[in-house]
Amino acid sequence: MRSPSLLVAYALSTSVCGLALPLEARQDTDDATCTAEALTPDTWKSLDIDTFMNDWTAYNITPTEKNNIQTLSASFGAPNFFCGLDSFCNAGQPCLPIDLPAWYLMVAIQNWNNYMNSLNTAITFASSIMGLKLPSIVNDFYPKPKDDITPLKNIVRMFSTVLSVVPFTGQVATVASGASSGLSFLSTQMTPPEAPDLYMSWSNVASSLGEVVTQYQASVSDSIQRTIDAQVNTTGGINEIVAGGNFLGVTQNFTQADLQETVLSVIETFSIGLTLQAQKIFIYRDSYSGDTECRTPYLGGWTEYCVMDAGGGGPVYYFLLKSDGDSNAEPQLDAADLMVNKYGLTQSQFMEIPTHCYDQNNKQQLAFPFDNALPLSATTPCVFNLLVCDASDRADINKGIVDWCRNDQGLDI
Predict the structure, then answer these.
(1) Of 1, 50, 252, 286, which one is least surrounded by beta carbons within 10 A?
(2) How far apart are CA 59 and CA 85, in angstroms?
C-alpha cells in the first residue's frame, strides 16, 4: 500500500484535484484547479512522472496475463481504456476521468498507441510511394532486369526510411529537421523484416513491395500486442517505452503526401543507384599530379567529371563505366544523361560522392553506414552508391581498365 506522505508529495507538486489514493484515483470533476500544464517532455520531467508511474505500478498494480495497460488505466478509474492495432484508447480530459498526474501518463500511452497505428498506416503509404516511383526508374535504367541480384533488404531500408519520419507527436519530420526520434525507437522496439536470401523482383516491383508490407505490418502488430500484454514496469513494458516524456505532446494527422514530400528524393536517388549496381556499372577514379587544371572531357555526355584535388595534388577524374562483357570499359552515356536531365542529379552526386563513401568506410565497396534506414538528404555519401575502382599506377599503364579493376582490385564487374 502507498505511503500517505508519498501521495501528498505528488498532489502538491502537480496541482491535482485531490490526493492520489492507492487503488483508486479521485474523480474531482468540478475542481477548477484541475488544469493541466503544457503537454511536453519538459512538463513530464518537471513533474517527475517517471517516478510517479514506477511507484504507482509497484504499489497499486497486480499484473495479469494479458492487457496490463488496461489494468493500469483501471487503477486510475478508467477501465475502458483499450489500446491496440486499429483501436484508439483515449485518456479524456484532466480529471475526466483520470486525475493528475496520472493523466499525463495515460496521454503518453494514448500517443504511443496512436504512433503505432500511424506506423501501420505509413507502411501502406510507403508501398504506394515506391509503387508509383520504382517502375519508372526500372524502365529508365534497367529495362531488362534480373530478379536475383539486389537483396530485398535494400527495399526494407526504404520502408524504414519512410517510417523514420513519422513523429511520436507533432509534425512529420523534414529533410531540414532530420529523421524523428522514432528511428531509434524502431531499432529497439521492433524488428524490421530481415528478408534473408530474398531478392528484389525488379520485373515485378509490386510483388516485392507486398512481401515487405506483410512482414513489416506483422512486426508492428507483434510489437504493440507484446507491449500491451507485458507487465507495465518490466523490460519491454509501457513504463519503459514512455519514460522520459517523448510521447507527451499533441498528435497531428499526416497524409501520404506529407511523407512523400520528405522521403521521395532520397528514395529515388537510392533506387537509381541500386539499378546501376545490379548492372555492375562502376566508377573509375584517376588522378594526374602533374597537371594544373582539368582537361576538356573527351568521353562525351555526362560520364566524365573532374575536380581539382583540395590538397594540391592536381586534377582528379571520375568516369562512369561498365564492362562490355570482355575487357573494354564503356561510358554509360544514357544512364548519366537520365540522371542529370530527368532526375536532377549532379555529376558530383553520382560520380564523386560515392568515392567519398568508399574512402570514409575503409575502402569498403557499397558501404551502408546508416543502420536500417537512409538519411533524409539525398546528397549524403553512401545514399547513391556504386563500385569504385582506383586507377593503377603508371607501371601498369598497359593494363586495361576492366582487367585492372576486375583482376587486381577484385571488383565483380
Answers:
(1) 1
(2) 29
How many independent structural domains does the chain possess?
Answer: 2
Cell of 232: 507495465
| Residue pair 166/118 in contact by the 8 Å Cβ criterion | yes
Predicted pLDDT at 6? 34
- Distance separating alpha carbons of residues 310 and 302, to the nearest angstrom: 22
176: containing domain: 35-279
Same domain? For 223 and 340 the reply is no
Domain closes at, from 242, 260, 279: 279
pTM given for the model: 0.87
Long-range contacts of 115-119 (CB under 8 A, 24+ apart): 115/166, 115/167, 115/168, 115/169, 115/182, 115/247, 115/251, 116/85, 116/220, 116/223, 116/224, 117/85, 117/86, 117/88, 118/166, 118/254, 119/163, 119/166, 119/182, 119/220
* Domain final position from 256, 279, 302: 279
Max Cα-Cα span within the chain: 91
Dump pLDDT digits (tens) for 54-93: 999 999 999 999 999 999 999 999 999 999 999 999 999 9
306, 317 contact by CB (below 8 A):
yes
Domain identity same for 120 and 222: yes
Same domain, 146 and 224: yes
Please answer whether residues 332 and 281 qualify as being in contact, where contact means their C-beta atoms are separated by less than 8 angstroms. Answer: yes
Buried b (16+ CB within 10 A) or exposed e, 247-258: bbbebeebebeb
Classify 307 as helix, strand or coil.
Answer: strand
Angle at 119 between CA 118 and CA 122, to 5 degrees: 85
Return the bridge partners of 87, or none.
84
Mark whether 110 and 223 lie in a shared domain: yes
Q: Is residue 14 part of a domain?
A: no
| Amino acid identity for residue 32 in this structure | A
Question: Quick one: the chain helix, strand, coil %, rounded to 5?
Answer: 45, 10, 45
Residues 201 and 340 in one domain: no
